[in-house]
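Supplementary Note 3. Input sequence used for the single-chain structure prediction.
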Amino acid sequence: MANLKTKIELYLKANSKTWDDTKVSLQDNSDGNGVFIASWTYNIAQPTADQIASYETAGNAAEALSGVLAKRKTEYKDFGHQLDLLYHDMTAGKLDGTGEWHKHIKAVKDANSKG
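The predicted structure, written as discrete structure tokens, is reproduced below.
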């Protein structure tokens, strides 16, 4: 189940707005009712429960993609390592997709498909 923040971000995007912590705040009273919108000061209507629910599928997809991209980021290694691979590929004349940098990036992307 997509979290409320993700669904609100999608609602805002659909209304040409972006998340702003000064215009919306979420709260969880730990009473079993979950997270809810505690304040809303955007110049558009606060989304209804039905509107929020309509973003469930898109929210799940956005959160799954975010997880894949975060995993890729950790597996790509730092820029210094990537630049070193590129340097060695360049000196070996392998900037045609056969070098070590390309193999490294492709392996990470293949192991962490966007779906």
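DSSP finds five helices and two strands in the chain. The mean pLDDT is 95.
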